[in-house]
Write a structure and sequence with these properties.
Layout (H helix, E strand, L loop, with lengths): L9 E5 L2 H4 L7 H7 L12 H14 L4 E5 L2 H4 L8 H16 L3 E5 L7 H4 L9 H16 L5 E6 L1 H10 L7 E2 L20 E2 L2 H27 L4 E13 L3 H22 L5 E12 L19 H9 L5 E6 L9 H17 L4 E7 L18 E3 L6 E3 L1 H14 L3
Parallel strand pairs: 1-2, 1-10, 2-3, 3-4, 4-7, 5-6, 7-8, 8-9, 9-10
Antiparallel strand pairs: 11-12
Helix pairs in contact: 7-9, 8-9, 9-10, 11-12, 12-13
């Protein structure tokens, strides 16, 4: 009997360092908060100190994998200077996962930049690929014995569009004609304070090219010191679709090319696998009245199928690195997860080589420029007491994991 999901398929959830760890003060987002441009993150979920408690909950929920990120500002607080104490912390995190039989998927960089890097130009710097590759190589040298899968970066297009086109994220630069990218909204348009100008479009293009080159350089650097390590990039895919109108079909094709294929065409040869982050489905010419998530995004979990099939053309193993819903009262999350998993199952049946599914997120967290208002977590966080409470939808996800992991 053919299995719905391949043997050894990984199930779990994801987090990111700045969003959950707390106590990170020397990065661009913390600086933005001090300037009043984005909400203060502060101690967040205190996951830096409570990771073992959180991993115990993941085990209770049937998870066999966990994606998290290394905080670059902790590891390299000054350019070229590395902090061995922080390396030891992340070694302990990895050992905690290993002792619980949870496979780690490590992301080397998830949006936040050390102040020394951001203040000197960040990914606008001509040498940013070399700077990033040096950091990536160092981390893998130090942690590669405890983890065999590293993603270089998270959602490069989201980072670039919010930082250089919309102006809502650091470095708060805005190209005035950016309603086209409003779909990626994760915060307000800081039009009154953002540095506006046509030149930011060119800076965006430079940053996107440097990000692709940074991934490629990091891939080569990692393989030089650890050839056996699996290296991926985590790509945010928006599914642009269209009704039967040929003009709308052309619009969708152009949008999919610009948002997903340009970056992947530059990097896929330097990927052992590809991580998919999926949240958005939009159709040109669509007149349906969509049910909305708390982020005001279309409720379209099943369309993860098209996102996976879009990446499957690169003939690499895939894994769902993120996918989830902001749902403050947990009224829609179980349905969302169920339909999302069904979309993954369909993609596998149609030939996509999907190896894992990681829900976003394990726990509520700092949702960037929206602060702590939006709740994506399988686990609710009381930010006053830091009490953890498993939501009912998390048990539905556990039931799905058990059903699809069962050997017939």
């Amino acid at each position: 009997m053919q299995r719905d999901f391949p043997e050894g398929f990984y199930w779990g959830a994801a987090t990111a360092s700045y969003q959950v760890e707390g106590g990170i003060d020397d990065c661009d987002w913390a600086e933005g908060a001090r300037e009043g441009r984005v909400p203060v993150c502060g101690r967040a979920c205190d996951h830096y100190n409570r990771y073992e408690v959180d991993f115990d909950l993941a085990v209770k929920l049937g998870h066999t994998a966990h994606r998290f990120s290394i905080e670059w500002a902790r590891i390299e607080p000054e350019e070229g200077e590395f902090d061995q104490e922080e390396i030891e912390h992340y070694r302990q995190v990895l050992q905690a996962l290993k002792s619980r039989n949870i496979k780690p998927f490590v992301t080397l960089w998830h949006f936040t930049q050390p102040l020394w890097f951001s203040q000197s130009g960040g990914f606008e710097r001509a040498d940013s690929p070399e700077v990033f590759a040096r950091y990536a190589q160092f981390v893998v040298e130090q942690l590669g014995d405890l983890c065999d899968h590293f993603s270089t970066m998270n959602e490069p297009n989201v980072f670039g569009s919010n930082g250089w086109l919309r102006g809502s994220w650091p470095p708060f630069k805005r190209f005035a004609l950016t309603d086209l990218v409003s779909i990626t909204n994760s915060g307000n348009n800081f039009e009154d304070r953002a540095q506006k100008g046509f030149k930011n479009l060119f800076l965006y293009r430079r940053v996107m090219k440097n990000l692709a080159q940074s991934h490629n350089a990091a891939y080569r650097a990692i393989k030089k010191v650890s050839p056996q390590t699996e290296v991926s990039v985590v790509k945010h895919v928006i599914v642009f679709a269209a009704n039967k109108n040929p003009v709308n079909r052309i619009k969708a094709a152009i949008a999919n090319y610009a948002w997903t294929r340009v970056f992947m065409n530059r990097t896929h040869k330097y990927c052992d696998s590809i991580g998919l982050n999926y949240y958005f489905y939009t159709q040109f010419g669509d007149k349906r009245g969509w049910k909305k998530t708390d982020m005001d995004w279309n409720f379209a979990p099943d369309h993860i199928y098209e996102a996976l099939m879009m990446l499957a053309r690169y003939n690499k193993p895939l894994f769902v690195s993120e996918g989830g819903i902001a749902d403050h009262d947990d009224s829609d999350r179980a349905e969302y997860i169920t339909k999302q998993v069904e979309g993954v199952r369909r993609a596998i049946a149609d030939g996509a080589d999907v190896r894992g599914h990681l829900y976003w997120s394990l726990m509520d967290n700092y949702e960037w420029a929206l602060g702590f208002e939006k709740q994506f977590g399988l686990i609710h966080i009381n930010y006053d007491t830091l009490e953890r409470e498993i939501r009912p939808s998390a048990w539905v996800y556990k039931d799905l994991i058990e059903r699809y992991s069962k050997v017939e």
